[in-house]
Amino acid sequence: xxxxxxxxxxxxxxxxxxxxxxxxxxxxxxxxxxxxxxxxxxxxxxxxxxxxxxxxxxxxxxxxxxxxxxxxxxxxxxxxxxxxxxxxxxxxxxxxxxxxxxxxxxxxxxxxxxxxxxxxxxxxxxxxxxxxxxxxxxxxxxxxxxxxxxxxxxxxxxxxxxxxxxxxxxxxxxxxxxxxxxxxxxxxxxxxxxxxxxxxxxxxxxxxxxxxxxxxxxxxxxxxxxxxxxxxxxxxxxxxxxxxxxxxxxxxxxxxxxxxxxxxxxxxxxxxxxxxxxxxxxxxxxxxxxxxxxxxxxxxxxxxxxxxxxxxxxxxxxxxxxxxxxxxxxxxxxxxxxxxxxxxxxxxxxxxxxxxxxxxxxxxxxxxxxxxxxx
Length: 375
Ligand code: FNR
Prior knowledge:
Elements: H1 4-7, H2 19-29, H3 32-39, H4 46-53, E1 58-60, E2 75-77, E3 80-82, E4 86-88, H5 101-112, E5 116-118, H6 126-132, E6 138-142, H7 148-160, E7 165-169, H8 179-184, H9 196-199, H10 202-207, H11 213-224, H12 231-238, E8 245-250, H13 253-261, E9 266-269, H14 283-294, E10 300-303, H15 309-317, E11 322-325, H16 327-359, E12 372-374
Parallel strand pairs: 4-11, 5-6, 6-7, 7-8, 8-9, 9-10, 10-11
Antiparallel strand pairs: 1-12, 2-3
Helix pairs in contact: 2-16, 5-6, 5-16, 13-14, 15-16
Organism: Terribacillus halophilus
Protein name: L-lactate oxidase
Cofactor: FMN
C-alpha cells in the first residue's frame, strides 16, 4: 500500500464522489421499480435510518505525532489476505441494475483485492461469476431451500467452483414488509430475475416438471421461504461442506453464542440493511454486546449503513474484524458497471487510509476501543 498522501485523487480519477452522489446518479438512471427495490428498507424504514445514525453514537479519539507515512489496512481472514477490512455484501438480482450484472462487481472486487460475496439469487450463475474472476476471494451466500438436497447441491457447487466460504443468511425466513416495492408493484423474483443458480442446478431441474417460467418461479418462491429453519439445520450444513460457515443476520448475543457453540466459523452482525425487521437494532449498536459475548472465538463482521472511512474505522474499533457494504457499490454498478464499483471502492480506500493516518494508526490490528468514545 502506498503513502496515503500521494494517493489522494490518484486512485479514483479526478474528484472523489461520495455515497450520496452515487445514490443520486442511481436514482436518475434507474426506473422507479428497481431503484425502490435497491434503496428501500422495511416498514417505516426506521432501522434503515438508524443504521446510519448509530455511527454518530461514537466519536474517534485520534492520536497525533506518530509516523503515519505508511498505512497498510490489509487483513487476513480465514487465512486469505484482503487489502482492506471491507467486502462486497451479497446483493441479489444485479441484472436489474446493470447489464454487467455480478460480473462487473466481482471483477472490481478482484482488482481491489477484497472479497466478493455472491448471493443465491444472482443474475449470473455462481459458476459464471467464479469463472469471470478466478483469482478473487469469493464467498457464496446461501439462501436455505426447503428441499435439503437443493441446499446441499448449491453448497457443493460453490465449493467446486472455488468459493472459499459459505454465508448462510438467517434473517429472511419470511420476506420483510417492503412497502415501497408493494406500492411500485415490483418484485424481481416474479420477473424471474435471480433465478440463474436454480436453473443451473441439477437437483432443481429434477424438482420442476418443466423449465417453464411459471414452474421455475413457483418452485423458487416455494423453496426460498422457510419460517421453520432452525439451528439443527445448520448442523446439517456443517456435515455437507468443508468450507467455513459464516452466519449472516445475527443481532442478539445469545444467537452469536449459538454460532460459536455449534462450531460454525464466523458471524455477520446485520439487519439486512434495514430490509427485514423494521424497528430492529442498528447493526453498529448490536456489535459491542456480540463482541463481548464471542470473546474472539470467531471472526465478527458487520454490515448496515457503512458509507465512509470513519464508519469502517469505528466498526473496527468496536471489535469487528471486517465490514461489508451493500447499496454503495451497487450505486457504482448502476452508474458505470465495473468501473463504477472500482471507483466506489477506491474512494473508500483513500478515505479509510486517511482516517487511519489522521487517527494515528498504520495497521488495522492497532485499532481498538482506545480510539473511540461514546457520545
Ligand atoms: C441485499 N442484501 C442481501 N443479503 C443477502 O444475504 N442475500 C441477498 O440476496 C441480498 N440481497 C440484497 C439486495 C439488495 C438490493 C440490497 C440493498 C441488500 C443485504 C446485504 O447483503 C447487506 O446486508 C446490506 O445491503 C448492508 O447494508 P447497506 O450497506 O446496504 O446499508
